[in-house]
Design goal:
CATH class of the largest domain: Alpha Beta
Largest sheet: 7 strands, mixed
Number of domains: 2
CATH topology of the largest domain: Rossmann fold
Number of helices: 9
Helix content: 25-40%
Radius of gyration: 19 Å
Low-confidence stretches: 1-11, 16-29
Order of helices and strands: HHEEEEEHEHHEHHEHEH
Amino acid sequence: MIRRAALVATVAAACIACLLVAMHSGSRDDRMSRVSRDVKRWLLPAPEYNAYNQLVAYPGKRKIAPAPITPRTMVAFVFGQSNSANHGDEKFRAPSPTVTNFWNGKYFAAEDPLLGATGEGGGPWVLLANKVIEAKTFDSVILIAAGVAAAPVEAWTTGGSLNGMLEKRLTEVKDAGLTVTHFLWHQGESNNSTTGAANYDAAMQPVIALTKRYFPQSKFFVAQATLCGDGNVPNVELQKIQLGLSRLPGVFAGPNTDEIGFANRYDGCHLSGRGLEKHAAGWAAAIAAHSE
């Protein structure tokens, strides 16, 4: 009995130690942080995924009651490829229950990784929610994540492999009684080529039209995002096309995340903790510029 109690105490202490270490930066050079992640994966239940490799369950996720929805509630549908999903090198959480992650008809405390997107790391969206609440742009935020790593824009458009998933997710959100106020699109790294850029505008217009069909009053923000990989350079032509989509009704320019250089990308593509801070700050500024 004493041995069993000692074993339980040891495991509990190990879990607490891992959680404390994980609170520090998960930069690529922080070996202790990576060890803590491996230990936690061994001790805790495994994450679960759907057919699109999006997280549907993750250890420690907590269901909570959402804050009342008011005209000052931001309902943000966040999607695109890996830098829109949970592939950052540091995780963040919301200090207040006024920020939630909506998934499968339920609300969860907003903390990385967000349910509904690929990856098990961090992202800019919880940070963004914290920033817009701190700035009093909104009183509460509901995050709906749907990003898929490495997906080109062609996968999202009509006939693409992700188009059905996107429409199903929009239907689920609407059936739950939610009205998306902001679509935040961060994608383009997989289209950083001459042909990828040439097809971008034509592929994006049906994606935007689909979101407007479900939520016609929503604001659709398009980031300028093309940079991924050591030695890669921003695709200026693709940036212009992404920026040019703001000519469409209800579409606005998001941040230019190509300005976040390799010093803030832990593997030459995905963002470090500092990179995610810059990412979130860019989104907060773009949204504030078009808030009513």
